[in-house]
Design brief:
226 residues, mainly beta, eight-stranded antiparallel beta barrel, two-stranded antiparallel ribbon, 15% helix, 53% strand
């Protein structure tokens, strides 16, 4: 991770050594939205081909989740996205196509709860181990708070003369391994078999979340240059 941050800082220093464009509209500020959340973005054009950007985005969402396996439970889940990114854009050609690299600092998390609403509920990898009224609470976090980003996109070049700049980002960031913590309360709480199935349920949810270990980034933005 330190190497990734060092490479980004080196890119910024290299960009700063290039003669800046004669365009007075080097600064930009605008809005952005996508899989990192909704937020704001600022930028500065170092040269005709290089721009740096900083963005902050977040989103709160609710979703019903049914984990894989033999569980009858359905979770009412709340997801919080909190992301801040430092990015370097490089236009290798004269057109709008660009390559982007940087780092993303995240504080993304989720929590959910599920209650057995029938006489007996399948749970974890077992069968009929929870009673009516048993409740499972789950907290989810990802291991890495700062992670690398690589992508491509399209936007006006730093040397273009228009005041408004539209942009599209397509890329991927590595979130790390998910960490799931589940707890049981209700009539089955303290029963050894039920507590063992709590651990199985944690693994089931972690397996589901492994698909997001490499998280796709799709963002669309609009910025005003000044």
């Amino acid at each position: 991770m330190r190497r990734c941050i060092a490479l980004v800082l080196f890119g910024l220093c290299l960009a700063g050594s290039v003669t800046a464009a004669e365009d007075v509209n080097r600064f930009s500020a605008g809005v952005t939205g996508g899989t990192l959340g909704l937020g704001a973005e600022v930028g500065y054009a170092f040269s005709p081909r290089v721009r740096i950007r900083g963005l902050a985005a977040g989103l709160d969402a609710s979703h019903d989740i049914e984990p894989d396996g033999q569980s009858d439970l359905r979770y009412d889940a709340d997801v919080e996205l909190r992301n801040a990114a430092a990015l370097v854009d490089f236009h290798p050609f004269t057109g709008n196509f660009r390559l982007t690299a940087g780092v993303i600092a995240s504080d993304n998390s989720g929590d959910g709860s599920a209650t057995c609403r029938q006489t007996l509920c399948n749970f974890g990898d077992g069968t009929d181990v929870l009673f009516q009224g048993d409740r499972v609470d789950v907290d989810v976090e990802f291991a890495d708070d700062v992670h690398p980003y690589l992508g491509l996109g399209w936007s006006s070049t730093p040397e273009s003369t228009g005041r408004w700049r539209l942009s599209i980002d397509l890329g991927v960031t590595y979130l790390g391994d998910p960490d799931v913590d589940a707890s049981l309360s209700g009539p089955s709480s303290g029963i050894f078999l039920a507590e063992q199935e709590v651990e199985n349920e944690e693994r089931n949810i972690e397996d589901d979340l492994e698909d997001f270990e490499f998280y796709p980034v799709v963002m669309i933005g609009a910025a005003y240059r000044f």
